[in-house]
Design goal:
54% helix, Arc Repressor Mutant, subunit A, Beta-Lactamase, alpha+beta, 261 residues, 6-stranded antiparallel sheet
Amino acid sequence: MTSQLLQRYHQVLSAVALSDDGIGATAIADAVQLPRSTTHRLAMTLCEVGYLRQRRSAIFELGPALDDLLIPRMFNAQRSHTILPILLNLATELQETAFFARRHFGRIEIVDALPVPGTQQSYIFPGLGERPLDKCSSSKAILAFCETQDVQTWLDSAHEKSDMPLIPEQLEGLWQELGEVRSRGYAICDGEIDEGVFSIASPVFVAPFGAVYSIGVTGPTARMKSRPLEELANQIRAASKAAAARLVAHSVSSGPTELGK
């Protein structure tokens, strides 16, 4: 019975994956040859775990949880070939710590950070692991380009675990800031987490997943602000585009066998 149920879930996912712009429960039922009520129940269960989502009433599309299963495989297979060289170049050019972050099951995690090679100056190391969704530039650079309903779900989950959840005014301010990030193409964190620390990050778009990564730099506020902000932003956006191009090119050239290692 368990294997039959899993097969039905797989059939529903497959039917939705083949649709270009979402698919209704009736069309899914016709494709998998199951009663509409059964199909709808299966689809709603898949929505609960994030494998599907409803974009509008009774229309289903693939959800972010599937991306979260695939993204780590892609990143782990390509990290040394694509990401680390770009971080090294960025750290060397800007003389500040460069970092790379990813979205993973509704969290934003910094997975790599490189200080300036051979530097004698003080530098900021942001640490690896989960970052605040509402404050960190690495988080805001990604969330600004995700579906609103997904971002709200992730924020709700994070705030349930927090001792200091966002009040309505703060949440409104965050949505406004994410809109500004979408317009300018980069996010900043100016002492929001640690006083005297400034960071700037830009999203890395990888088809067909969208903005699942971000790349940026962090350093002491005074030193970072001694440069024109747009100059920093241009260099980081260029690094983001280079990272995206390398990720896509490596995925195409390596194929599924290497990505599965």
